[in-house]
Amino acid sequence: MLATIFTKSVRDRWRGVAIAVVVIGGMLVFGMEVYSGIDLSVYTDLPEALRSLVGIDEGTDAAGLAYGAMYATYGALTIGSLALSIGAGSVAGEERDGTIGLLLANPVGRRRFVMEKLGALVATIAAASLALWLAGILAPVAVGADVAGRHVGALVVHMFAISVFFGMLAAAIGGWTGRRPLASGTTAFVMVASFVAVGVLPLIEGWGDLARAFPWHYYAGSDPIATGVDWGDLGVLGGGSAVLAVLTVVGVERRDLGGGEVRVRLTERLRSNALAGRVLDRLEGSARVSHIWVKTLSDHQTLVIVVGYIVVFFGIVLGPMYLSIDDALRDFMEQVPEAVLAMVGYADMGTPEGWYQTENFSLTIPIALVVVTAVMGANAMAGEEADRTMGLLVANPVSRRRIVLEKAAAMVAATVLLGLFVFVGTMIGSLVAGLDMNAVNVAATSALAVLLALVFGGLALAIGGATGRRGAAVAVTSGAALALYIVNAFFPLNESIAWIASWTPFHYYLSADPLNNGMPWGHAAILAGLFAGLVAAAVAFFTRRDLRQTD
Amino acid sequence: METAIRTEGLTKHYGDVRALVDLDLEVRTGEIFGFLGPNGAGKTTTIRVFLDEIRPTAGRASILGMDSRADSVAIRRRVGYVPGDLALYPKLTGRELLTYFANLRGGVDWSVVDGLADRLDSDLSRHIGDLSSGNRQKVGLIQAFMNEPDLLIMDEPSSGLDPLIQREFQAMMREVAAEGRTVFLSSHTLSEVQRVADRVGIIRHGELVAVEAVSSLRSKAMRRIEFEFAEPVTAEAFAAVDGVRDLVVENHRVSLAYDGKIDTLLTTVAGRYEVVDIATHEADLEEIFLTYYEEP
């Protein structure tokens, strides 16, 4: 597997692919089990408008629902994330690791280097898609579901195309800038934003066509699971990927390669101006290194600010959007029994609270906040060990317990700040649109989101503290978050296994409907207790073991 | 006077790998102790136990009279440390990094820092990520020396430093010892240790093979000598000289290892043949190990 750049790049990624496929495939089987245990007439009896809104076609069945939820959404987001992380790492990752110089000291041209990297990206995603296709065929056989008329193959082909597109986008940004965090961050933002936009825009009268501006439209817009492959849409994604691939080659050819050095921050560039320098000095002072927790916070400053912008942005725009929702839809939604809505996974969008819960609090906010806490938790100990700075840090007269607690404190500070952003954004959206939402309840919901994110941050902290492996901490935490989210969203549909949902942290986040009912203090206490327990575990693990020497 | 470092039966296993075996070591206060050994001998493992980065499988280490595990925070308040594989926060400038560690130690005398930076010719205003490895190493040295610790533990500290800076660094170590403070210097280069150390511990395969005064080590120090003669020579003339080893004769070139008096060799040779060229260099550590500390 070390014969070429291509094979080595595939080899570096096979584990991530295997984990993703096993998780999604497993979830598909779960989903089919859940759906086959319930009376589907609640779905099929829904009026046409609502069914099309939630993506359920007439005469749906367990297999159709499971494919739609597990594959079309979570599957595509997961494989897309995998692709963008491979893409961002292809060129920029080797630069960050400082290995690109050695690699290109071999008689390999830059063009061939990039082509092999991109080839590996396509091959890896193809392998993942193939495995998902097989899982999609085998799962219904395993649970005895009828999948006649479902084009799982077509869905997987579309999924492959959209994933490769996001991978190429990340590769192109990385190829032009050599900055991996920029490449993966921007692409992840484009992916999530386009996923949300394609879901929301068609709900608004006259805005439906805007969805065509987003890549996700060419993946899901034609509903490939029901209608089969849409060659036109695939052409758009394929053409876009090809253009991005060419751009990547051009970008890498034309610039100086980085050798693992750190780029000058924007603030440092501003400093060269005397006036701006003085202002910055006053703002920053020497505070960034005054304590371990302060330095940790400042290390993640950019991430927190970017995610902060995103949550404020979503909070604000959703207010006016609510006013623009098709009135007919709203009237209709008001007549749908709440029990039915809960089963579809939607809150009553006829009220501002239901709208915000569906479009903001149920998925976007947890993803945004958990990304921050998972990264901070994984970086806390495991990150410093991987960067080999932990040896010097613990050579100072600070106990390991204090290191863990200060890093956890930084995580709490960052998440509370983001919770504040969530609150402020939502309140502005409510004020601008005159929705008159209860500020105390919005604050309570934001606080619950903070606590939920801290639970997963605590998990990453504990895994990093126990193993010293950043990759393991990130992978286990995001895998657990995804799996628990799905369990919480879908298990309640089947009465015999509904109780399992109450074992997930997500249950204690929104199940009490805090936007309408205010703070469920008991639930908040459970989440806070979980976080405290995980931090205590992190301390216990980290103080007892040998530090890792190398990554 | 308290002993700076004392280990008793210090042992560390990584699974089946025995990284340290029953190490009994004593470093006196106020001395520069060289810790010599080839790569993979267990030098870094020993140091990481001292700093409580890793915990011994058996035995104990006492640093400045305190237990390496129970009193680790108190120990580190009085210890300066340069890790072997130095990694610093690339996004910070040198000064920011030193501020960070100074804060963790409850302050530092900045005139000392500036003095060190001057001596080592280190630019603390630049980002560490932009520095060459030698200049990074200087920042590493400054953070170890800046608190004027009672004990300096340094793992291959002069890697990447140019000869001028190395000389300055050696002077800094001597000053520390002159003030009654202690230096524990791990290295695989004999010449560096010889230049500054009072005593030397030699470690091999995780076991302490010998502890010697540098003066006695120096008398053992071998040289490798290469002669070029005007005419072809025979091996016998050289083999007869006491202290000659590894003799290779190729026509009119001779290469040998020698640990006797240089004068003896020269008189023997010069009387017999016309010497065209002579080159001599210090035998490397491996050679000394092979000669003196071969496993039984």
Task: Describe the protein.
The complex is a heterodimer of chains A (551) and B (296). With 551 residues, chain A is mostly helical. In chain A, 76% of the residues lie in helices and 0% in strands. The two termini of chain A are 21 Å apart. Chain B is of the alpha/beta class and 296 residues long. Chain B has eleven helices and 14 strands. Chain B has helices at 43-50, 72-77, 94-104, 110-120, 133-145, 163-178, 190-196, 214-220, 236-239, 262-270, 285-292; strands at 3-14, 17-28, 32-36, 58-63, 66-67, 79-82, 151-155, 182-187, 199-204, 207-213, 223-229, 244-250, 253-258, 275-282. In chain B, helix 3 (94-104) packs parallel to helix 5 (133-145) and helix 4 packs antiparallel against helix 5 (133-145). Classes of the chains: A mainly alpha (551), B alpha/beta (296).
How many distinct helices of chain A?
Answer: 27
Q: Oligomerization state of this entry?
A: heterodimer
What class do helices, strands and sheet pairing of chain B give?
alpha/beta
Q: Profile the largest sheet of chain B.
A: 6 strands, mixed
Strands of chain B, count: 14
N to C succession of SSEs of chain B: EEEHEEHEHHHEHEHEEHEHEEHEH
Helix and strand run of chain A: HHHHHHHHHHHHHHHHHHHHHHHHHHH
Cα gyration radius of chain B (Å): 22 Å
Percentage of residues in helical conformation of chain A: over 70%
